[in-house]
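**User:** You know discrete backbone vocabularies at least as well as I do. Would you mind producing a protein record, from residues through to fold? Write it directly below this note and I will take it from there.

**Assistant:**
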Amino acid sequence: MGLSIRAYARLRGVSHVAVLRAAKAGRIPLEADGTVDPAKADAAWERTTEPHAAPRPRRMKPVAAAALSSVRETLREEGLPTGGGVSFVQARTAHEIAKAHLARLRLQRMKGELVDRARATALVFRLAREERDGWINWPVRVAAMMAAELGVGAHAMQKVLETYVRSHLASLAEVQPELR
């Protein structure tokens, strides 16, 4: 007398549905009473089942290298280990960290602690232009007073001051502020 289909499935380490499918496909023999002779079924199972037909692990969809490097960078910034590959737990941790950063940025913007980059750049440009204009107009305002104190011609004093002020402003204009 043989085993029931469920008992044989437990013995084999597979589901009873797998045993039913194998029997229906003729890959394992059933006894006349519907039971399974384990010795005959094992031999037939090995003979008729391809080695690669065992359940294969599902392949993961490829993830963009940029996403993986972003996860590694986020974890590294937080001082967390990044190891070789990126696990789901690490990716989830990086995601939660990024959400927390975004929430903090939104809160800072709402409190007025953050400024818009374009607005800040325009403000810096406007202030620099006003400063430059003030310096360009300065020799005209003070040249006559300085010339009188030194006893030289006002026009000559103004030309010398303008030359040096413009030279100094040109050297300052070479500095390119980086607002990141």
About this structure: The mean pLDDT is 85. The two ends are 80 Å apart (CA to CA).
